[in-house]
Design a protein that fits this description.
With about 290 residues, the chain is mainly alpha-helical. It has a single domain (about 1-285), classed as Farnesyl Diphosphate Synthase, CATH 1.10.600. The protein has 16 helices and two strands. Strands 1-2 form a two-stranded antiparallel ribbon. The longest helix is centred in the last third of the chain and has 28 residues, at about 195-220. The two termini are about 15 Å apart. Belongs to the FPP/GGPP synthase family. One of its GO terms (cellular component) is cytoplasm.
Length: about 290
């Protein structure tokens, strides 16, 4: 993870260099290069390599999903959304650059993500690139990440949100971008339709796992340990997995999701699948 993350960070630094207009690029770089585990781009690269591709084929897509992830965090932290002041241990983008620039920085990262895939991808047939762009657009739009965010905002303060509704929120809001990461990697690497769909199922379970663990950490760790405001979902009146299931049942659910995710990798070469197995285990056991 450290080696791949370093390569991703280097590519992101090049993609969003400090150039005119300076203020918007400063704001983009502030959040994009603020750290983070780079789970999504690493999943993209690992999926590409699993189906026979190479890192350069996946790197533009890996950068793209991290740009979109960063955009979602910038917008999620805004006063009109989750209204948060802390992200990755630093003041959120709008606290440093103001709300208008924060919105525009997110918009610019979203646009740049698609440019990265369309212009920077090398060694991949155009048909695969077009397919990947279509997948990404669908998974982050009104049927994907945006759908989950809308459902999440709409559910605040509601007492009748059940497990089915909560899973819908996070299969869209959180898991959809992990799904995009893995599916894009598999497409760029030349995976068959069957391989792509198996990896899609792996990513959905891993994405939901990510959120269950996130909810558990939100009520068991401090803001300092997390690098973001702890307990904010409970304050906002949001339904979480621990609130609905309790801590222990949530941990059992996380274990089940990890098993389901890894079960989707059974038909692949175990050595090539090992990075994805390890990533799923990392998501399950992370402490921040």
């Amino acid at each position: 993870m450290l080696g791949k993350a370093a390569a991703v960070n280097e590519a992101l630094d090049v993609a969003v260099s400090l150039r005119p207009p300076l203020r918007i690029h400063e704001a983009m770089r502030y959040s994009l290069l603020a750290g983070g585990k780079r789970v999504r781009p690493i999943l993209c690269i690992a999926a590409c390599e699993l189906v026979g591709g190479a890192l350069p084929m996946a790197m533009p897509s890996a950068c793209a999903v991290e740009m979109i992830h960063t955009m979602s965090l910038i917008h999620d932290d805004l006063p009109c959304m989750d209204n948060d002041d802390l992200r990755r241990g630093k003041p959120t983008n709008h606290k440093v650059y103001g709300e208008a620039i924060a919105v525009l920085a997110g918009d610019a990262l979203l646009a740049l993500a698609f440019e990265q895939i369309a212009v920077k991808t090398e060694g991949v047939p155009p048909a695969r690139i077009v397919r990947a762009i279509g997948e990404l657009a669908r998974l982050i739009g009104a049927e994907g990440v945006v759908a989950g965010q809308v459902a999440d905002v709409s559910s605040e303060g509601m007492s009748n949100v059940g497990l089915k509704e909560l899973e819908f929120i996070h299969l869209k809001k959180t898991a959809a971008l992990l799904e995009a990461s893995v599916v894009l990697g598999a497409i760029m690497g030349g995976g068959s339709n069957d391989e792509v769909e198996k990896l899609r199922s792996f990513a959905r379970s891993t994405g939901l796992l990510f959120q269950v663990v996130d909810d558990i950490l939100d009520v068991t760790k401090s803001s300092q340990e997390l690098g973001k405001t702890a307990g904010k979902d409970l304050v906002a009146g949001k339904v979480t997995f621990p609130k609905l299931l309790g801590i222990e049942k949530s941990r059992e659910f996380a274990k089940e999701l990890n098993q389901n995710a890894q079960g989707q990798l059974a038909g692949f070469d175990p050595k090539k699948a090992a990075p994805l197995v390890a990533l799923a285990d990392y998501v399950a056991s992370r402490q921040s």
